[in-house]
Amino acid sequence: MRTLVIVRTLKTGGMERVAVNLADAFADQGHESHLLYFKIRKDPLYPNNKKVLLHEFNVNQITLRRPLGIMVEIAAKLCNLAWRKSHFLIAGWYGGQQLQNKIAQLEQQHGTFDRIIFRGEGTYESAWSFKHPNAIYVLENLVKANSNSKRLAKKRFNVLFHNKQLAAVSTGVKNAAISLFTKENITPKHIQVITNPCPIEQIRQQANVQKPHDMPKGPYMINVARLVPQKDQNMLLEAYAKSRQTLPLVIVGEGKLKIELKNKAKSLGIENNVYFAGNQTNPYVWMKHASLFVLSSKIEGLGIVLFESLACGTPIISVDCPGGVRDIFKEELEPYLCEQNADALALKIDQVIEQNGYPIKEEWIEDFKPENVVKAFLQK
User: Over 70: is that where the pLDDT of 115 sits?
Assistant: First the structure.
């Protein structure tokens, strides 16, 4: 079958990594796999499977190259001045029309796409007027209003989700979306749970490379996430300070809160035991050699780093945050969830470290195997 994954950027991020993994998974399963992106950021991600066909489609640049596009952009900005955060209404309509033309060109060249998958709200917000009978839109996280205006929020929900085929990455995301859509009188064509793929063999290959020279010499615990409010490393630092542990805490990731978090570690008196490792092109080798992976997020659509850690053979714990972590922490793993506060997380850290972790079972990552996710996306 012929598939197309569409993502806004190819930057180093969780959702972008999932888009690339999914394109790889389609190609690995013998399908004709295409990946279309709107722009490249610093340190871009690319598919590992060389059979994946890449297409760049910079909506913003294309808009500004044409007189009509310039007029549309001016109108969108004026609309945004009058109605804050409404830029997408006009810009996304025009972007969708341009994407419609691009996809028609690709289909003329390659044939009809049997499945088109939009990853991320920001992606389909930029092209919300696009229509295709085989398109499916993935809810990566809890759906929420991005404006204080109820009228604008309702309009946004309507253009993004009404009469669309939707896939939620977790049961928690699906249930939250249904509750919101019912309240707002939004009726998607269909909504189902399709989780994210975990390229297990690829992860294990990368995990088995030589240790980086700047990795701690002895045992450590790890958190891999952007340094942003949603990931709540503030609470993680508080929990670490409250715990009985002396092994280092390694935080892999970059973000706007880096300086604030470093200052927080200093104020807690733990700065010598907390190592900010920045972005790593291969986070898996860091995960593999950790004694424990800790997730502290305020919300998490699924938490791909959790099953990536399991694939590396590293025990995981997490706060019981809204979203999809319970799709991973089920049955035997459920005891490794804790309440969403620093005291509870500190106790859970101590418990798992002092019992020397726990053995990882292969069956825990069965649901996330790429071949199962591919099959789910291609079912009509």
Answer: yes
Please provide the average confidence, as pLDDT, over all residues in the chain.
92
CA atoms of 154 and 66, how far apart (whole Å): 31
List CB contacts of 219: < 8 A, sequence separation 6 or more. Answer: 247, 290, 291
Q: What is the CATH number of domain 200-366?
A: 3.40.50.2000
- Look up residue 39 and give its amino acid: K
The CATH architecture annotation of domain 2-194 reads 3-Layer(aba) Sandwich (3.40)
CA distance 218 to 44: 31
Residues near 250 by Cβ (< 8 Å), separated by ≥ 6? 215, 216, 220, 221, 222, 223, 275, 277, 286, 290
Would you list the domain boundaries of the chain? 2-194, 200-366
- Token pair of 228, please? 């942003």
Considering the entire predicted model, what is its pTM? 0.88
Residue 140 buriedness (CB in 10 A; 0-12 / 13-18 / 19+): buried
For the residues of 315-361, what is the DSSP string, one character each? -EEEE--SBSGGGTS-GGGGGGEE-SSHHHHHHHHHHHHHTT--PPP
d(CA 41, CA 13): 11
| Interval 195-205: pLDDT, tens | 999 999 999 99
pLDDT digits (tens, 9 = 90+) for 273-330: 999 999 998 999 999 999 999 999 999 999 989 999 999 999 999 999 999 999 999 9
Contacts of residue 4, defined as CB under 8 A and 6 or more positions apart, other chains included, come to 34, 35, 36, 103, 106, 113, 115, 116, 117
Following DSSP, what letter does each residue of 242-311 receive, concatenated? HSS--S-EEEEB--TTHHHHHHHHHHTT-GGGEEEEE--S-HHHHHHT-SEEEE--S-BSS-HHHHHHHH
Average pLDDT over residues 68-78: 81
Q: Which pair of structure tokens corresponds to residue 131? A: 């229509």
Type of residue at 333:
L
Angstrom CA distances, 293 to 66, 248, 314, 318, 348, stand at: 49, 12, 7, 8, 12
CB 76 within 8 A of CB 87: yes
| Tokens representing residue 203 in the block | 């992860």
Is it the case that residue 12 has pLDDT exceeding 70? no
Q: Can you say how many angstroms the Cα of residue 301 is from the centroid of all Cα atoms in its chain?
A: 7
